[in-house]
From TrEMBL:
Residues 296-314 have a biased composition (Low complexity). This is DUF317 domain-containing protein. It comes from the Bacteria. It holds the Pfam family SPDY. Residues 294-314 are annotated as: Disordered.
Length: 314
């Protein structure tokens, strides 16, 4: 897809599509933006370099800048309880995808009442696996029939991203949902993993961010050479080459079919019955106009009535 040499302008900012193949830009800015108003704890020792927490510390977002698992996000009933669920994102995952989760967590926290125990970020997951990946299936991702027994795999139209769901019996801390993008390999495959008790709407929010058609902004040198041929690049501020087209998704096909049907209907000649109705309406309108004209002509031709004779009092 890319037509420019990799080494040409290595620090040039480009728009990368699809976003899930853009990789990380080395910072977590996009992922932390939705919770920028939460307390930040900068840690000098240990693998976790930055910990952002909700004000009551029930939600924790850890940034492990030098680790394979770059992000670790948890939620608990209170500040000292064990996490109810855990989500991890590896070092290749675009922070824009992480933002799908953190923005939903910020909204859930803002809407929750700590004294009522109604926090959505602690709700039980749905019994139906399809609820978690509905944004993907709505975007045209399809089920792969070759998945192992007890699992479900759904892949993107380009085959370069997907989700694996393990429906087999598991413990509460087992990893049951894995979103992935890119070819297998340490520097090429992005992964987001969720444990069994992760609320369904949080997984769906992450999936929605992953399927977002908006491109990501990267410097050219940040794009892995092994992935470059799978993405479309365009300089920032310039639209992608119109000659470069992506494979249409099933949703694109349906939209095109509907648009063509509407255009055909607009061009199609009217039926005989419809034409008779139009003719009848035309005759009715003409008759009404003639009647109105005749009445006006008659009124103009009639001599004016003489005023009544004045009455005299006796």
């Amino acid at each position: 897809m890319n037509t420019q040499p990799y080494d040409q302008h290595p620090y040039q900012e480009v728009l990368v599509s699809p976003m899930y193949l853009a990789g990380s830009n080395g910072t977590g800015d996009a992922g932390f933006a939705p919770v920028s108003h939460w307390p930040h704890h900068y840690l000098d020792e240990g693998p976790c370099q930055l910990l952002v927490t909700s004000p009551d510390q029930r939600i924790r977002i850890g940034w492990f800048g030098d680790d394979f698992e770059l992000w670790k996000i948890t939620a608990a009933k209170d500040a000292v309880s064990a996490p109810r669920w855990t989500a991890t994102f590896n070092h290749v995952t675009p922070a824009e995808i992480v933002a799908g989760l953190t923005s939903t967590l910020a909204r859930d926290y803002a809407e929750a009442d700590a004294t009522e125990g109604n926090a959505r970020f602690l709700t039980n997951p749905s019994l139906y696996w399809a609820d978690a990946v509905r944004p993907l299936t709505n975007a045209g991702w399809t089920r792969d029939g070759a998945a192992e027994r007890g699992t479900v795999e759904i892949t993107a139209p380009d085959g370069q991203a997907g989700v694996l769901i393990d429906n087999r019996l598991s413990d509460w801390d087992d990893e049951t949902v894995r979103l992935w993008a890119g070819p297998p390999g340490w520097g090429t495959r992005a992964e987001a993993v969720f444990t069994a008790r992760t609320p369904t709407h949080l997984i769906a929010a992450t999936a929605a961010a992953m399927s977002d058609s908006a491109p990501a902004i990267r410097e050219r040198h940040q794009i892995n050479r092994k992935v470059e041929h799978l993405v479309t690049l365009a300089p920032v501020g310039q639209a992608a080459d119109p000659q470069i087209s992506r494979t249409p998704t099933p949703l694109d096909v349906r939209r095109t079919a509907v648009a063509q049907a509407v255009r055909r209907a607009a061009r199609a000649p009217q039926t005989a019955a419809a034409l008779r109705v139009v003719a009848a309406r035309s005759r009715t309108a003409t008759s009404a106009q003639n009647l109105s004209g005749n009445l006006a002509h008659a009124a103009a031709a009639r001599p004016p009535a003489s005023p009544s004779a004045p009455r005299h009092s006796l």
